[in-house]
Write a structure and sequence with these properties.
Elements (H helix, E strand, L loop, with lengths): L26 E11 L2 E4 L2 E4 L8 E5 L22 E2 L7 E2 L4 H7 L4 H9 L7 E5 L4 E5 L7 E10 L13 E2 L2 E2 L20 E2 L16 E2 L32 E2 L16 E2 L16 E2 L4 E2 L14 E4 L6 E5 L3 E10 L5 E7 L12 E5 L4 E12 L3 E6 L12 E7 L1
C-alpha cells in the first residue's frame, strides 16, 4: 500500500470520527474562573502579542487547559454546547462553527496557513470559534484587540495520570483541598502524614519567601525555632535566636503534685501572677501571710557585709562617706572626762558648730554605746559624725573618743 500516512480521525471518517476518549479512569469537572485570555496574531509568519491591533484582526489564544467541556461538564464541548463564556462581548460577539477535521488539519499548518484557514469561517468582526479538544480560541476581533477574561470547565483525573506536573491535585479522598485561611472540618477535612528532614547540624538556610522542610533530630523529635541544645550559647537578637511565650495553669487551690523526675506546668493566680514557691530550699515560708523568713549566712567576703569607718585612735570627728549612703549600725566609746553626744550629719563634710544633727546620742563619760538600724538609715548627701558637748546642736570637742561605723 502506498500513500501518505493517516494523521487524524478525519482521514478515517470526516462525518463521524472514531471515538478515542478514555473511559477506564475517573475524572472530575473543574472550573477555571475569570482566566486571562491573551490574544496573538500573525506577523512576519510568526505569532506575536495582538494587544492594540485594529478591529478585524484574526487572533488566537491558548487556554490553560485543553479539553474544554460542555455546559454540563460531561464531555468535550462543541459548537452547540460549550461551557466557555467571556466576561464581556467587546471583542468576541458571535460564535461560529468550524468543523473538527479543520481544527485537526491545522495542527500541521504554519501560523500563516492557520490564519488563512480560519479566515474562511470568521468572516465578520466579532466572530469567534472554540477548538474545545485543544483548548484554543480563534477570533475576528470586533474592536481594538485587548486581552480578555474567560470562564470554562475542564476535566482532571481523580486517580492515575501520567508522570510530570500535568495533574492538578485538587482533592484528597474526594474532598477538595482547603484554601489558605479556610475552616477545617473535624472528621471531614482530609489530613496527610508529614515528613521532616533529619538535621541536627549544618542546617541549610533558605532565602526570604522560600519554602523549607521542617527539621527533626535523628531520633525523630521535631526541632522548633525556640529550642537550643542544653549548655549551648544563645545569641541575643540573633537571626536564629527565637524565644517561646510561656503559659501557666491558673490554679489557686488544690495544686496537683508531681513525682520525682516528672515535668510539671507552672502555676499562676486567677489574675495571672506567677506562683513561685521556695519550697524546701529555705525553711519558714509562710504562704498564708505571704512572708518568707530568712536566715543570715555569714561569708568571709566583703560583698555581703557593710563597709566600716573605724577610728584608729581617739578623734573628734570623721567623714564616713562623702556621698549618699545608708547607716546600718555603730559602736562608740566616750574616753573624755565628761558626758558627750555622738552626732550624725547628712553632709559630705563635718559641718560648722551650731549645726543641727540628724541623729544625736548621749554617751556618758567613760561609757559606750551601740545602735543598729535593721532597715538602714538613708543619708541623701553623705555621712559625717562628731563628738559634741551639746545635744541639740554641734559643739565639737577634742579627741573625745573612738567609733566604729558600719555603712554602705
Amino acid at each position: 500500500m502506498s500513500g501518505p500516512m493517516l494523521r487524524h480521525q478525519a482521514d478515517v471518517s470526516a462525518p463521524v470520527p472514531m471515538p478515542v476518549d478514555r473511559v477506564d479512569d475517573s475524572s472530575v469537572s473543574n472550573t477555571s474562573s475569570a482566566e486571562t485570555v491573551v490574544w496573538y496574531y500573525v506577523t512576519s509568519s510568526a505569532w506575536a502579542a495582538a494587544v492594540g491591533q485594529a478591529a478585524g484582526t484574526i487572533c488566537t489564544a491558548k487556554l490553560t487547559y485543553s479539553g474544554v467541556l460542555n455546559s454540563m461538564g460531561t464531555a468535550v464541548g462543541s459548537y452547540n454546547d460549550t461551557s466557555l463564556s467571556f466576561a464581556a462581548a467587546t471583542r468576541a460577539a458571535q460564535k461560529v462553527s468550524i468543523p473538527e477535521d479543520v481544527f485537526s488539519r491545522m495542527v500541521f499548518m504554519s501560523p500563516t496557513d492557520q490564519k488563512a484557514t480560519v479566515t474562511l469561517y470568521l468572516t465578520t468582526a466579532g466572530d469567534y470559534a472554540i477548538d474545545h479538544r485543544r483548548g484554543q480560541i480563534w477570533l475576528n476581533s470586533k474592536a481594538t484587540v485587548a486581552n480578555d477574561s474567560a470562564t470554562y470547565q475542564y476535566a482532571t483525573p481523580l486517580s492515575g495520570g501520567s508522570t510530570g506536573d500535568k495533574v492538578d491535585v485538587i482533592k484528597f479522598g474526594g474532598v477538595a483541598v482547603l484554601l489558605d485561611d479556610a475552616a477545617f472540618g473535624i472528621g471531614t477535612s482530609p489530613v496527610l502524614p508529614a515528613g521532616f528532614l533529619a538535621d541536627e547540624t549544618g542546617t541549610d538556610s533558605v532565602s526570604e519567601g522560600d519554602v523549607g522542610a521542617a527539621r527533626i533530630t535523628l531520633d525523630r523529635k521535631q526541632i522548633n525555632s525556640s529550642e537550643y541544645l542544653d549548655d549551648a550559647a544563645f545569641t541575643p537578637a540573633g537571626s536564629s535566636s527565637y524565644v517561646t511565650v510561656l503559659g501557666a495553669i491558673a490554679d489557686e487551690t488544690g495544686a496537683d503534685s508531681v513525682d520525682e523526675g516528672d515535668a510539671g506546668a507552672l502555676r499562676m493566680t486567677l489574675t495571672r501572677f506567677l506562683k513561685v514557691s521556695l519550697g524546701d530550699l529555705i525553711s519558714g515560708e509562710d504562704q498564708t501571710n505571704n512572708l518568707i523568713q530568712t536566715a543570715e549566712k555569714p561569708l568571709a567576703v566583703s560583698t555581703y557585709a557593710p563597709d566600716q569607718d573605724t577610728s584608729a585612735a581617739a578623734e573628734a570627728s570623721s567623714v564616713t562617706k562623702a556621698s549618699a549612703g545608708v547607716l546600718y549600725s555603730f559602736s562608740a566609746t566616750n574616753s573624755s572626762g565628761s558626758n558627750r553626744y555622738l552626732q550624725f550629719f547628712n553632709s559630705t563634710t563635718v559641718p560648722a558648730d551650731a549645726t543641727v544633727p540628724v541623729l544625736s546620742f548621749l554617751v556618758a563619760s567613760g561609757g559606750s554605746i551601740h545602735e543598729s538600724f535593721p532597715m538602714g538609715r538613708y543619708f541623701s548627701t553623705g555621712i559625717a559624725w562628731c563628738w559634741s558637748s551639746t545635744a541639740a546642736t554641734k559643739t565639737v570637742g577634742s579627741t573625745d573618743g573612738i567609733a566604729d561605723v558600719r555603712y554602705k
